[in-house]
Amino acid sequence: MISTFAVFLCTMTMAAAALPSGMTAIDIKPMVSVTERLVVISRTHTTDTTYRCHSAKEKSSIGDNKYIYNLKARNSALQYISGEVTVQLEEIPGEANKYRATYTNQQNTKHTLTLLQKDEHLYCFVLYVEKSTGQQGCELLTTVAYKDQIPPACQQYFKKQCTGAEAKLYLNDCTYD
């Protein structure tokens, strides 16, 4: 179960190096202020996963730009697996007052998450994820309330900027607490 959970942790990540052409980082702090569970609708990295119903929820702030997040996903046996990670916000190199998020999983894989797009109400987000294993790509997330009606600002950005193979992780029978 630990190795299976580690694979899931690899799904909730963003960018450390230079972003692909046409992508610009924005400050991730507004996303961290969202208290509702965030649903991963689709992603363009680690597309061979058998896990679905991925989500993340901030549990607490532990100070100094550190947060505890609960990550959850459903495996192929339809069981939900859940665990916590410590997420650290760090200033994006060369970008004053712009932050990204990082965490390292149990397999010592560093995940860097960079926010690329959000809507004005903070109902949706597009992240660029880069793992120290070399895997990278986008994730489209919404709050639980907007999982079935993705705001155009994020949906259009994801379709235009995040090319390549796509894994659809949200299914109609997913449940979120």
Q: What keyword list fits this structure?
A:
177 residues; mainly beta; Lipocalin; 8-stranded antiparallel barrel; disordered N terminus
Describe the structure concisely for a colleague.
The chain is mainly beta and 177 residues long.
From the helix content, strand content and strand pairing, which structural class follows? mainly beta
Per the principal axes of the C-alpha atoms, what is the gross shape? globular
Q: What integer is the average pLDDT?
A: 90
CA-atom Rg in angstroms: 15 Å
Can you write the helix and strand succession as a string? HHEEEEEEEEHE
Count of domains: 1
Low-confidence stretches: 1-16
Strand-residue proportion:
35-45%
CATH architecture: Beta Barrel
Q: State the CATH class.
A: Mainly Beta
Number of helices: 3
Major sheet details:
8 strands, antiparallel, barrel
Helix content: 10-25%
Order of strands, main sheet, comes to 1-2-3-4-5-6-7-8
Number of strands: 9
CATH superfamily: Calycin beta-barrel core domain
The CATH topology assignment is Lipocalin
Measure the end-to-end span: 22 Å
GO molecular function: amine binding
Pfam families: His_binding
Protein name: Lipocalin/cytosolic fatty-acid binding domain-containing protein
Signal peptide: 1-17
